[in-house]
Amino acid sequence: MFRRLFFVFAIISVFLVFSVILWLNLKQKPLIACPEVTPACGSSKEECLKLAENLEKQYLGCQYRQKCESCKYINWQELIPEIRNILGSQFQDVIVEEIYNLSIYKSADITGDGVPEALINLGSGGAYVNFLTLMRLEDESEKLAKPILAEFKKKDGEIGPRLFLIGASLNHELVTEMIPEKKLIYTLQRAYDEKREITECIVEAYIWNQENKIFEYSEKEKEVIENELCKI
Predict the structure, then answer these.
(1) CB atoms within 10 A of CB 79
(2) Alpha-carbon distance 75 to 104, whole Å?
(3) What is the widest separation between alpha-carbon atoms in the chain?
(4) Are 188 and 201 part of one and the same domain?
(5) Is-contact 30 59, C-beta < 8 A?
(6) Which of 205, 225, 218, 214 is nearest to 149 (CA)?
(7) Is there a single domain that holds both residue 81 and residue 174?
(8) Residue 4: pLDDT band by 50, 70, 90 thresholds?
(9) What's the total number of domains in the chain?
(10) What is the pLDDT of residues 136-155, one digit of tens each?
């Protein structure tokens, strides 16, 4: 009897030890391969660490906080006077600072170099629309790198800077978002009926081309976003 109990106890102990070892290994190693994602550096290390922590919650077992050590932190707000000179008083038929001052709408690293790009709010718009444009740094390796307008290759092959829209009303929504893990920026326009069901959804997606230093229209990513956000 005693020997049988001892044998059962030994088996349970071995099982528990094995379970603990397995749990520790799973905690240290992700169940899936970690996506090659660089957290958006933002304007400070604290901001980067916060974003990296969110990524680690999303991809359990992956480590992203150490990548913040290689970031080049850019305070885009301090570059507003220089941006104002670049844009001038009018940009693509939009009067700059017509309603309020230039501001940084959002920044994120969507070129994969550890340096955040920035969506600039032009300070102009209508009843529910604000105009944005994207800027990046011309030479990230230089301490005094200068902001420049990001260039886009549209679906028709036309190349140049472009305007983006944000805003919302009762029946319409305008969205512009950056996705660092895909080196992607997209714009989305949605229309709703009185039941808040989507009646129209238009998407444009642009992905960074490192060789040409340009954001190129991507039909593939456009369809991915449509499948996620345009379910009519």
Answers:
(1) 20
(2) 10
(3) 93
(4) yes
(5) yes
(6) 214
(7) yes
(8) low
(9) 3
(10) 998 655 455 789 999 999 99
Q: Dihedral sign, CA of 221, 223, 224, 229?
A: positive
| 38 vs 67: CA distance, rounded Å | 7
Same domain, 175 and 199: yes
pTM score of the predicted model: 0.73
β-partners of residue 198 are 192
Last residue of one domain, picked from the residues 48, 73, 98: 73
What 8-state DSSP symbol labels residue 108?
A: E
The CA R_g of the chain, rounded to the nearest whole Å, is: 24
CA 6 to chain centre: 58
> What confidence tens digit (pLDDT) does each residue in 6-57 have?
454 556 554 554 554 444 454 444 445 777 666 666 667 777 788 788 888 8
Question: Which token pair is 190?
Answer: 């949605």
Q: How far is residue 180's CA from residue 71's CA, in Å, rounded to a whole number?
A: 14
Expressed as residue numbers, the domain containing 89 is 75-232
CA 59/CA 153 separation, integer angstroms: 32
Inter-residue contact 114 to 71 (CB < 8 Å): yes
**Of the ranges 38-42, 88-92, 184-188, the best mean pLDDT one:** 184-188
Q: Are residues 159 and 67 both part of a single domain?
A: no
